[in-house]
Amino acid sequence: WPNTIDKVYRSFYPACKQNKYDILNIHSIYNGRDVLTKYMHTDTYVIATLRHPMDLLLSGLNYYGYVNRLRIMGKTIEDYLDNPQFLVSDWSPMNSMSYEIGLKDFNIPSGLKKSSLESDLKYTEEVERFLNWTEDNVDFFMISEKFDESLILLKDRLGWRIEDMIYFSLNTAASPPERNNVDTDTLLIKTKEFSYIDYLLYERMKVKLDRMIEEKGDELEVEVSKLRSLNKEFSEFCLERVEVDSTLYGSVKILGNTLRHNRTDDRCCVETAIDEMVYLREIRKHMRLSCRTH
């Protein structure tokens, strides 16, 4: 990041002439199915997760320590949304979800706000082209606020079992993010102006997910309840929740997991508690070996 898949792959994975990779685990910008299938199988199922733009903004500003910097400068989040240029950073929450999915390849200037987009037809048409492109190039959009429901629907599409969907939360804030004395209604208005394309993307895909949830009916509630029960059972058996400093910035407390002392001989528990970066390196190693031996 912030490079696209094709550029990042050259650094992390060698050319694989006789086979293709099964797993993509690099931080990059997605730039379409045609590019992805140069490195992965043609039947690769592309999944994206979207989060409400206001929640994403608050989470990011707190996690990266920007709320503290704003406070020191005598500024509020509202000030930042009106004029983000005064806070120099290597991360911007403006339309960040759309940017990660491929917005940079469309003719929409960086930093364009809602009022400018709506007043210029060429930008309105380009945004609609981007939204249609995402539907063609992403097979399934999960919604963070309906994560369990999304997992059950994803399970159905992949033909997996409910046991395959068990998960544990990592890097979640130990306490709600600070709002810097800005009320919710104001934040909603400001973030919609600030990240309008993200709002359009989020709202379109949420409507689609809600329709799927309605179609599955009562069966979905039963399966969600079962998944949550399995999550709780497995978590209590293997792990203890701990509060730690953010490993990246140390500015906020986050919740993590540590292996229970009496589960060190349980392979499943041990693998669950492995540090995420260590786990990613192991996957990369396995993929490279697979590429050389096929």
Please explain how this structure is put together.
The chain is built from 14 helices and five strands. The chain is mostly helical. The strands form two sheets. Strands 3-5-4 form a three-stranded antiparallel β-sheet.
Give the overall shape, derived from the CA principal axes. globular
Residue share in helices?
Answer: 40-55%
User: What percent of residues are in strands?
Assistant: 5-15%
The chain-level mean pLDDT equals 84
Radius of gyration (CA) equals 21 Å
Low-confidence stretches: none
Number of DSSP-assigned strands = 5
How many DSSP helices? Answer: 14
In brief, what are we looking at here?
The chain has helices at residues 5-12, 33-36, 53-63, 66-72, 77-82, 96-101, 114-119, 121-137, 147-158, 184-194, 196-216, 218-238, 267-272, 276-293; strands at 47-50, 140-143, 172-173, 239-245, 253-259. The chain is mainly alpha-helical and 294 residues long.
SSE layout and pairing:
Elements: H1 5-12, H2 33-36, E1 47-50, H3 53-63, H4 66-72, H5 77-82, H6 96-101, H7 114-119, H8 121-137, E2 140-143, H9 147-158, E3 172-173, H10 184-194, H11 196-216, H12 218-238, E4 239-245, E5 253-259, H13 267-272, H14 276-293
Parallel strand pairs: 1-2
Antiparallel strand pairs: 3-5, 4-5
Salient structural properties:
294 residues; two-stranded parallel sheet; 52% helix; three-stranded antiparallel sheet; mainly alpha; globular
